[in-house]
């Protein structure tokens, strides 16, 4: 037994009274129009959120938002305009320089424009190596705050990687000049369906 285990064992043996965790009741902000709020905050953090237009397919929306994209990576069956299924590559280096990666968002948070996602690709570097990320997210999966978001995260997640992304990667560490894409995608966009 190491010293940490010895200390913890001693604490367990000598704590006589167990106190329940306090119940937290905080009224959180609610947004009347979640879609408008989410779109506004996405713009504020340097990203963008678009809505699927009437009669438009997901492929048509991708071409509308990214008309210049030549290399599009996606493994979702509903996205047929993809030029590469990223699960067919062996190393992350083969994904370098992709114009666009299309991902599935699990839910979005209106207060900060964040998208929660879980790894859907074999190479988790894809979320950071692409020039642009496009998350497809149902409008019904918008929550008001992170207080609502956290309980929705599955603790039984079996993948290796998950997280929140809000806007493009950015830093101002070097000479206090804002640089986008230093640690990930230069552009982060959400398509609300």
Notes on the protein architecture:
InterPro entries: FTHF_cligase-like_sf, LUD_dom, NagB/RpiA_transferase-like. Pfam families: LUD_dom. This is LUD domain-containing protein. 22% of the residues lie in helices and 21% in strands. By secondary structure, the protein is an alpha/beta fold. Strands 1-11-6-3-2 form a 5-stranded parallel beta sheet.
Could you list some keywords that capture this structure?
single chain, 193 residues, alpha/beta, five-stranded parallel beta sheet, four-stranded mixed beta sheet, 5 helices, globular, FTHF_cligase-like_sf
In short:
The chain has helices at about 5-15, 35-45, 60-65, 125-130, 145-150, and strands at about 50, 70-75, 100-105, 105-110, 115-120, 130-135, 140-145, 160-165, 170, 180, 185-190.
Quote the distance from N terminus to C terminus. 55 Å
How much of the sequence is in beta strands? Answer: 15-25%
Please identify the structural class as seen in this structure. Answer: alpha/beta
How many H/I helical runs?
5
Helix-strand topology string: HHEHEEEEHEEHEEEE
Which stretches are low in confidence, meaning pLDDT under 50 for 5 or more residues running? none
Mean pLDDT: 91
Spatial strand sequence of the major β-sheet: 1-11-6-3-2
Largest sheet: 5 strands, parallel
> Helix coverage percent of residues?
10-25%
């Amino acid at each position: 037994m190491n010293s940490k285990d010895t200390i913890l064992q001693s604490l367990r043996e000598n704590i006589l009274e167990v106190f329940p965790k306090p119940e937290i009741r905080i009224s959180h902000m609610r947004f009347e129009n979640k879609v408008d709020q989410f779109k506004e905050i996405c713009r504020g953090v340097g990203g963008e959120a678009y809505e699927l237009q009437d009669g438009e397919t997901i492929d048509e929306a991708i071409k509308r938002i990214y008309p210049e994209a030549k290399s599009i990576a996606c493994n979702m069956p509903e996205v047929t305009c993809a030029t590469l299924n990223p699960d067919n590559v062996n190393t992350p280096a083969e994904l370098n320089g992709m114009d666009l990666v299309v991902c599935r968002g699990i839910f979005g948070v209106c207060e900060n424009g964040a998208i929660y996602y879980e790894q859907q690709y074999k190479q988790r570097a894809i979320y950071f190596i692409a020039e642009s990320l496009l998350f497809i997210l149902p409008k019904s999966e918008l929550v008001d705050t992170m207080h609502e978001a956290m309980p929705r995260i599955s603790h039984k997640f079996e993948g290796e990687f998950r997280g929140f992304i809000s806007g493009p990667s950015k830093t101002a560490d070097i000479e206090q000049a804002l640089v986008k894409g230093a640690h990930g995608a230069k552009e982060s966009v959400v398509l609300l369906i």
